[in-house]
Amino acid sequence: MATPVETPETVIQARDLTRRFGTLVAVDGLDLDVHRGEVFGFLGPNGAGKSTTIRMLVGLLAPSSGSVRVLGLDMPGGAERLRNQVGYMTQKFSLYDELTVEENLDFAAEIFGLGRSRRRARVGAMLAEHELEPRRRQRSGTLSGGWKQRLALAVATIHEPELLLLDEPTAGVDPDNRRRFWERLFDLAAEGTTILVSTHYMDEAVRCHRLGMVRQGRLAAVGTPTSLTGALEGRVVEIAAEPTEDAVRALSQRPEVASATQLGDRVHALLAADGPTAAAMVPRLREDLAQAGFRDLVVEVARPNLEDVFVALLQGERLS
Amino acid sequence: MSGRLEALRQRGERWLERRPRLAGSLRRIAAVARKELRQLVRDPLTMGFVVGLPALQLLLFGYAINQDVRHIPTAVVDHANSTTSRLILGQLEATQTFRITHRPAAEEEAEALLRDGEVYAVVVVPPEFSRRYYRGRGAQISILTNAGDPIRARAVRAAASGLEQRYNQRQALFDVGPDAGGSQRTTRQRSTFGAEAELVRPRFLELVVLNLYNPELRTALFVVPALLGVILTTTMIMMTALALVREREKGTFEFLIATPVRRAELMAGKILPYIGIGLVQIAIVLVSGLALFRVPVAGNLLDLGVASLVFIAANLSLGLVISARTSSQFQATQLSFFFFLPSVLLSGFMFPFEAMPVPAQWLGETLPLTHFIRICRGILLRGAPLAGQWADLLAMLLFAVVGFAVATRLFTKQLD
Questions:
Q1: Mutation for testing the B interface, residue in A57, A81, A83, A151 having most B CBs under 10 Å
Q2: Any idea where the domains of chain A sit in the sequence?
Q3: Strand partners, A139
Q4: Longest dimension (CA), chain B
Q5: Contact, A42 vs A212, CB < 8 A?
Q6: How would you classify the pairing of strands A73-74 and A86-89?
Q7: Is residue B292 left, alpha or beta, with left meaning phi > 0 and alpha meaning psi from -120 to 50?
Q8: pLDDT, tens digit, for every residue of B265-278?
Q9: What's CA B201's distance to the chain center, in Å?
Q10: What CA–CA distance (Å, rounded) separates B279 from B18?
């Protein structure tokens, strides 16, 4: 992946960012650096503070404390001067249902102050690039999820922003549309757009240049997907055993196992940080499970995935 | 007692147990009711409405609505300016129906005051008043009323005829003794007493009331011009109150505030289409008022257009204030209604303004509808030029400007 090697230009810089709603602390001392030209993934469960953080980055919410600099401007004070350089796609579809696809694009282009000829060119380009041409005269409210999301991305990028912030853009979209959507994001990144995208889909997260794992309002770990999963190398085993459900239960109860989940017809187990390695555990597990009467037994070392990273973080581990 | 209640409850439960479909239905009704109550209690604005509205209505209906018209602003032109004329004018004021606010020198001036809505009645004492009065020829005082408001016009007539009757009775008693009754009797006395009669002929008064602008005292002429303002108030406030809130509810607000659009630009853009809609509504009411109720357009349509624009802007800016401070369409509707009720009651739409207690009048003066109704009645019925009602126009303009400024202040391009 094209992670910049030379000292990268920081596009987003947040320090000790905190946001409280009454007694609830939604974002709690979050530090974040996003570099120019990268696709930065914001991964975390619901309620971890992803949306609140993004809203503070766009300047729609004022931080309770801490600082945010976006494209060299302090937020939220500089938000208005930044509007033309930033594209923002909200979690909920936030375009006008009563307007057609083309009218929504036109409206966005006008409100972003595009001149007539550029507006016409950009609206045309967006209709073509996002394959919205056949739906241009359809009311947006009647579009299905995938089309709505395409339109939303087209609107968010109509003014060719340097920085694009996307808040769970693919929620409720089918896999094929999600795949296309990510292709579009990489096209934009290739053109030089910096992208911050929040998600809770692991398969999307692995595509990002870098990932920030958010947990309880903090950035629990930052790194490339490979460096994050690499930290858990040698701590994952996969087991095939019949009956599988019982195997999950039996494994979960072992102290050396941090978590066990069913993955298809297999059990995916993350081993505890302070216990023996996967290689050491394989023979032990094979023996114990055979003794417990499990059939069709396969036990082998497996590669960690992002979900393992997540589980490790949830259990309070520190990954660098 | 509680034992009995308990027994009753148990019997009820057993009875219900034998009717499972009814029991299920009751449970669902109770669940919906409980949920509804929870939602209600957790929306502070709605709760305020539940408590505040009855109180507001009681105050408004109880105190402000008063059909006994008093203190009608009146201009007096006293050409006679004699002891008697002053005495009679004093008695006129003592009826409490009239309050003499202007004393112009000439009738023309007085009529301009009447036309511009400064006064509702003009009392003219002719120069020959004293001479006719002392010769017992029936001294006339004319009272012109603005009958555009039939309630006031009737009050003026009632007060005038009451005074006339009382005065003449007393005067007859005073002039020709207790057995003399009225003017007809005196005529006979004159024939009996011959030359002497000239001295004892009772001096009597005639108060002639003239209804201007609406001689038939048709209520439609009073109501329809004001309806123009009432209709605009409802639709304009509601429409803009919902305009921003709708975006908030649908989520488009978050998109909008992340664009470079400025606050004032957004506000102005939100208002603009509704100004056009307001003008269309005015045209509809005017045309149908003319067709159905024969409401004239005595004044200048351009004047009406200008006043309407200012009035519409005032209402729209209020709608924006509501919109900037509410989070749901339901709340916005409630708040609009909260404003609408006093507007209708305190603006002089249905009840004469002076009949209200003074604090209610102050409150009424702050409402744009009050001023617009005055202007509309002036232009449509009396052909009053807008220039003569500049104070009302200015009041509405002030409201619009303040409202727009407040709305822009209250509205932030942030989510909290």
A1: A83
A2: 10-223, 230-314
A3: A100
A4: 107
A5: yes
A6: unpaired
A7: alpha
A8: 888 898 889 999 99
A9: 47
A10: 64
In CATH, what number does A10-223 get? 3.40.50.300
Report the alpha-carbon distance of residue B378 to residue B114 in Å, rounded: 9
What are the beta bridge partners of residue A30?
A17
- Interchain proximity A112–B414, CB inside 8 Å: no
Tell me the per-residue pLDDT of B365-394, one tens digit each, with 9 for 90 and over.
999 999 999 999 999 999 989 988 899 999
Cβ neighbors of A265 (< 8 A, separation 6 or more) are A240, A244
Which residue among A21, A62, A83 places its CB closest to the CB of B259? A83
Domain containing B203: what range? 72-212
Query: Whole-model pTM?
Result: 0.77
Residues B223 and B81 in one domain: no
CB B285 within 8 A of CB B227: yes
C-alpha B203/C-alpha B173 separation (Å) is 11
**CB contact (8 A) between residue B255 and residue A88:** yes
Dihedral of CA A216/A220/A225/A229: which sign?
negative
Please give the CATH topology (third level) of the domain spanning A230-314: Alpha-Beta Plaits (3.30.70)
Phi first, then psi, for residue B203 (nearest 5°) are -90, 120
Query: Is B251 found in the same domain as B175?
Result: no
* Number of Cβ within a 10 Å radius of residue B184: 8
Of B254, B261, B414, the CB nearest to A94: B254
